[in-house]
Automatic annotation (TrEMBL):
Pfam families: DUF6192. This is RacO protein. It comes from the Bacteria. It comes from Streptomyces poonensis. InterPro entries: DUF6192.
Length: 314
């Protein structure tokens, strides 16, 4: 258990929470009071309704704008508080629940029942409404940093939604972790998908999979020979295979990322400094690919001084 929270002790923290909750409740009452006043000035009317015009009078917007100006607040604030007050009759407003939560839940068809059943807060272990919990209840996207496992998984899925290139790179990266791969293969559906992909690649002969083709061509010859090999040679072979696979994955990751991002430049009007920065990085990429080709052809991986200076940005 924490003895201090921030710069205060736990007891003082609880005192501040209690006093602040009172202020939050007071603020909610004040906001509802302003909303009720605005609602009295300009009640909500059905769409298409109208008032009999006996004499010239202000429009709804003009009346609310005048009210807001007299209070010294924005028209948007008054209009929002008026609408929220209309959605929450006094008998359905919940004491101890912020005005913000009432605002978020205001459009929910079962809001009166929903607000009486606050969800469990994973941070505090207490059932309590928060702005983030209310957003989840109505299906809004949360701005909060993911905390629970479910929230983190949902965030990753949202980021990779509709982008197969990103999903493939992320899945490949995660499956390189032995524990992750082991747990993933315990899932029957995941295991079935991997097996299906392997069968499809085998039937295609690897022609459409550059990684499989390069990998097989590179290491298949080394597997032929005596059935009993030196353990040191085996370990070195595993390490060599892993390093080769990592290099191919880096190349494929760059290609996938470029294929996703370059088409988006069509609508961009780049500045001269942005063009210069991209040109410098492209020059580094060309030099790096030349280095890779040279290393593959000669077995020499040392950087010459000119290339080293270029990669350092000199």
């Amino acid at each position: 258990m924490f003895t201090t929270i921030g710069s205060v002790g736990k007891d003082r923290f609880e005192e501040l929470v209690t006093s602040s909750l009172d202020r939050v409740e007071m603020e909610a009452r004040c906001q509802f009071a302003v909303g009720d006043a605005a609602l009295e000035i300009e009640p909500l009317r059905p769409h298409g309704g109208h008032l009999p015009v006996a004499e010239p009078q202000l429009s709804v917007e003009e009346s609310l704008a005048l009210f807001a100006a007299r209070l010294g607040v924005s028209f948007h604030t008054v209009r929002t508080q008026r609408w929220v007050a209309a959605q929450w009759p006094a008998e359905h407003r919940q004491t101890g629940v912020s005005f913000e939560v009432h605002r978020i839940l205001a459009a929910h068809p079962d809001r009166f029942e929903l607000i009486r059943n606050p969800p469990l807060n994973e941070r505090t272990g207490l059932p309590r409404w928060t702005g983030e919990a209310a957003k989840k209840a109505v299906g809004w996207k949360s701005d909060q940093v993911p905390v629970s496992t479910a929230e983190k998984v949902a965030a990753i899925r949202d980021l990779a939604e509709g982008d197969e290139a990103v999903a493939a790179v992320v899945a490949t990266d995660f499956l390189r972790r032995p524990d992750v791969a082991f747990k993933a293969m315990r899932d029957p559906t995941a295991r079935e998908r991997v097996n299906e992909a392997q069968f499809e690649l085998a039937e295609e002969g690897g022609e459409d999979d550059e990684f499989t083709q390069d990998y097989v061509q590179t290491f298949s010859d080394e597997d032929e020979g005596d059935p009993i090999e030196d353990p040191v040679h085996i370990v070195r072979g595993f390490r060599k295979a892993q390093e080769f696979g990592d290099l191919i994955a880096v190349c494929q990751g760059f290609i996938a990322g470029a294929a996703r991002l370059v088409p988006k430049l069509r609508c961009h009007d780049l500045t001269a400094s942005q063009v210069a920065a991209l040109t410098r990085h492209v020059e580094k990429l060309r030099a790096t690919t030349d280095w890779i080709e040279h290393a593959v052809a000669t077995g020499k991986v040392d950087l010459d001084e000119q290339l080293a200076q270029l990669l350092r940005g000199q």
